[in-house]
Amino acid sequence: MIFSLYLPPAEIEDAIPLIWWLSGLTCTDDNFSQKGGFQEYAAKHKVAIAIPDTSPRGDNIPDSNDWDLGQGASFYVDATQEPWAENYHMYTYITQELTQIMHDLVPGYSGKESIIGHSMGGHGALMIGLKNSNRFSSISAFAPILNPIQVPWGIKAFNAYLGSEESTWHEWDATSLIKQMDQIPPILITQGTADTFYDVQLQEDAFMKAAQNKPVQYDKKDGYDHSYFTISTFIGQHIAFHVEQLNK
Amino acid sequence: MIFSLYLPPAEIEDAIPLIWWLSGLTCTDDNFSQKGGFQEYAAKHKVAIAIPDTSPRGDNIPDSNDWDLGQGASFYVDATQEPWAENYHMYTYITQELTQIMHDLVPGYSGKESIIGHSMGGHGALMIGLKNSNRFSSISAFAPILNPIQVPWGIKAFNAYLGSEESTWHEWDATSLIKQMDQIPPILITQGTADTFYDVQLQEDAFMKAAQNKPVQYDKKDGYDHSYFTISTFIGQHIAFHVEQLNK
Fold first, then answer.
1. Neighbours of A237 (CB within 10 A)
2. Structural domain total, chain A
3. What global pTM score does this model have?
4. Active site located where (chains A, B) (predicted)?
5. DSSP secondary structure code for residue B223 in this structure
6. CB pairs under 8 A between A and B
7. Which of A89, B55, B119, B145 gets the highest tally of CB atoms within 10 A of its CB?
């Protein structure tokens, strides 16, 4: 497994928090590091940024011919179905194996973490953040899938990775998770209205209904699309949002 | 020909200057727009950014099997040799044809221009800026080839595009040009010391000797390499340098 880790310029006495970034369909750990434009803000606020890949990789790893299933499209779940069950344990990889590695790699790690993601990775951030709400100080997402069990991308992936029994899907669905929770970390979501996936894949109604009276800020941005141009425009705002929580 | 043009958010009464960006070997107009991180600064200072491709393109356009000659590697000259002479007129394309198009496309264009480039495009910026020193308010470059007629990349390209008669090369060589000039626009050059091309292709001694007593600032940056990470780190400084001249 390949990953990227950004370390800010820092002094020996600095306590450095860690923000996780989960990318979307088809991405690797390179997309955000090359196009996200976060480095200036991460340097200024002295935070480390962990950027995992979006799935297991390799010639011997199961894949599909579709760009929205298999390599590059893990949905960050632990798969239970063949042929995915052996390798596609991205949830456990990120929350346990890679967590230990990242904590060891950040000099002066403060013990505080937040999580951000984009699209499929936006859902990953919400799902992982909500399932580990004592661990993450805050959660944010750009153009996230909010209710995968109700939209085409999520239904296809969850059928493949988790099987056709829909009752097993809820523990991996951000809308189902937030509905059941009384206390959650603060959440910031940025969604461009010119995003071509917005209407069908990224609809927010069910999530926002389930999130009623919980600290969720949902920002619509007129004219912004699904691209990294949108991310690089607002990443400074997202990092500042997290830093406020991480430094409490 | 494909190009990119960044227009800043602006009011109808704003006068908008234009900064040209010339990319390096193998690039298209996409590299800087996706990885350069300039948008924040161009928006703040209200400047437009013109980003041409690095050569003519297409199945019927001459090319070579080498990444440093042919498509993606024009060196921004007007070729005189076969098979390049018909299509490889990048100097005239940029300074005349595309100039007219860009001026027409920038609402409230102020009539002021500067030019920046990277590597091969860093030389292009210096060469074009020096050959048109009344037109450009300032010139800057990241890791530029400074003396192409003395280094492997340039010797190969100039032989192919201009022929083996070296006397024809000088009018396209930034070091030869600056040597002959008394007045030049202010120049800023940023060069990373960890750039693997630095020693052989990007050596500065001859250029800096020819530039003695002229307004050239040559900044070495310890540990920075030839990549767009270096560019995105210092692009704000370069844009501020140009804006100071453009707003005079």
1. 13
2. 1
3. 0.93
4. 119, 195, 226
5. T
6. 19
7. B145
